[in-house]
Fold this sequence. Notes:
The chain is mainly beta. It has 2 domains: 104 residues, no CATH class; 196 residues, Beta Complex (Endonuclease - Pi-scei, Chain A, domain 1), CATH 2.170.16. Strands 2-4-8-7-6 form a 5-stranded mixed β-sheet, with no helix packed on it.
Amino acid sequence: MADYVINADSFGSFYKNVGQNGSDDTVTVNIGSGFRGAITVDSQPADGEIDETTVIIPEGWELRLVSNSQDDSVEDPAFNDLSYEVYNAAGEAVGTLSIRSNATTGVPCFLKGTMIDTPQGAVPVQQLQIGDFVLTKDRGVQPIRWIGSRNLGAADLEKAPNLRPIRITAGALGFRLPATDLIVSPQHRVLLRSRVVQNMFGVGEVMVAAKKLLALKGIEIASDLSGAHYYHFLCDRHEVVVANGAETESLFPGPEALRSVGAEALAEIYMLFPELQQCSYTPVSARPFPDGRKVQHLAERHLKNNKSLVCAQCDLRS
């Protein structure tokens, strides 16, 4: 896995070729208030690599989609060729952004109204506050250290359809899992537990982004929603928490997620967790994150064998 960062905060042309290096890649484009010019993230549609791009813009700025062509004949997810115009907070066109990659992503989040298990019972995620306690699978009761949110309207989702929420319908993961429909951002991970997982990865449980499960029955893009008010919260470490009855994740403080929260929120997180700024620091995930190709195979095997993604009764090795 290769990580690339483009910091565009001045006048000029900003270019990064991320294809044909032998590994899947993540790219973060940080557009600063001083940006004027052109930004290009370049890759190739048949190089066998999966490239994911995250774009961060200043408050009040806007990306307006100009064109989007897609090639789904070679890679999965499909390869996209996207062109945007960049507008500042005053509504002035200040440049262009071109992205040739498989996906553009955002921070993993819960949708407003999601019920999170706490010692006092299930609480709507939007009512949680810093210092409140949530129930975790591995360490019992744990405090929330930081909370963030982002409200996307219909226009935002039209410009960035990759951020449309995903609905995991009641029972789609297993028996009564989730108990009611669970709606999350595409990057939000849910816990899978099955013999298929055990056989493929040698562990009984893994965490997989919701967008990787769209081929399965009962998991779909929530296209009926006109907007999405997302929430995410951070604990002392990455935790397995319960949302609408299903086991899912607190915010994982990895590089991609942290770059997606925005500069002001990132400064707050660094004040709480200064170790995250150390180059040598590597956050530990609550469960393994399989890579994209293996996840596709995992979903296919569950579908082919008609197996639940979460087998609560299975006796699995850790």
